[in-house]
Amino acid sequence: MAEDLKFELSILATVQGFYQKLMRDSLGGDVPIPSGLDEASLRQSDNGLPETLSRMYRWLHVLDMAITPAMLRQALTPETDSEVAEALLRYFVRRRESSEINRDKTDLIATFLYRHPRVSGQWEQHGYGLDGALPLSPFEIALIEILADTDVPQLPEEHVQLLRNFDPLREEITRYRDFNALMDSGIVSRVREIKRWLDSSFYHPGVLATVAAHNAAFGQRFDQLFAKALGEIKQFAQALDEMGGSILSTVDGVEVTVEHVAAIEEHEMLKADYNNALEKFRRVSRLKKELDRRPPIRKSLLAPAARSATAASNRSTAAAKPARIAATKAPVAAQTFQPPVITAQQISAEEGKLRRVEESIRVFVRVADPKYRQIVPMRFFNLMLSPAEADAYNATFLEEKSLRADVARTLIRSVSCIARINTELEEIKRSQSMSSLWKLHADALVVLLDISSTTTEEAGSVAKAAEKGDASSSKAIHETIKKLRSRSDVAVKTLAHPGS
Hints:
Layout: H1 2-27, H2 39-43, H3 49-66, H4 69-75, H5 82-95, H6 100-115, E1 127-128, E2 135-136, H7 138-146, H8 157-163, H9 166-175, H10 179-184, H11 187-198, H12 205-242, E3 247-251, E4 254-257, H13 258-262, H14 266-271, H15 274-292, H16 295-302, H17 305-329, H18 344-367, E5 375-377, E6 382-384, H19 387-393, H20 403-430, H21 435-469, H22 471-496
Antiparallel strand pairs: 1-2, 3-4, 5-6
């Protein structure tokens, strides 16, 4: 009995030493150890072992309250001794607290042991249970040995059934090819829910072995896809910076700049507590989606810098071609307009304006009387919305990965382009006598024509996808795009015939 108590005390002493180092690294100084619990006193403690154990558990519980899962994640490095991690696992399984924080810490430690076996490849071969029938993984066998002196919980049949969900989940993970798909899958919340349902059974060796294997597979895939997505965003930002731009896009109403992207530290985000970093991961995913919605711009900027400048120039030249052809046929006016080369900075600035227009229309539609929400008051005119367009601005499912969300986003984007073109046309009318202002708004129109051309192409794809299942949505898109083309034609004629 005394030997068992001494062994248990030695485990707690190892945990205390690890915690002391962790607190010292975090706070820059040692935390005072209660009298009788220091290393020297513990070595001499032969009498009163139960009381010493009780005091040690209470002391470690106090330290636990100051240590977050994120701190534990950062403290467990490849250099951490396996004996320390095993002592931590014994400590948490013995406590078997039902709190989510305690479960997360146990989860981290078990996954650490799975990722860092004493012998490389140790967990790759499967063995069999004592009855020769139930297959046991080598890692589960190792956990049974580590926790042999610990009163582990029984595993009821309903929890055995829950564990069978993890094999399909691991297969699902392998099918994801991009970060957005992984983030939109909801797999993180599904797994957390399963862990919550397992309750105290979570501390069973079979559960810990299953969960650790899942965590390792998910973590590896997550890290790969996140690194790929962030690499593409940073490459985009670098090319944009070389071309003189600064704003990549707008996410959640906030403009994301080159500086913001440069400040993202991949390693630090991946080491942080997942719950705390989850919103940052989601923002990276939303930014990636925004960039993916602009394929012509994105493809040109992801090429080497020299080619990207040429591609942007070629695209702007093609976009302004109708205006130049019309201008050659028109009489020479008091002012002449030379279509500029569209830069990434201009595109980025116009994207910000479009986002603000979208938001202002959305706010009006949601708060206006339903009878009048289709008449949106703008600065120089009233913007008339169709019922489908008004419904799109009022939709609550825009973040979904679904056809109806694609239709709504397409309508919103197209209407916002119409509103911006109308605004610049009105500004041109009012600046006929001021050449500098006239050119400023004319340049903006050329950028809008380029964006509208891309929007029209993307809208065609969405409309085609909607034809089979939702003909009314397809019709609504075609009607909105017809209005956008009409306003684009007016813009081209205005640029071709300045002063008319």
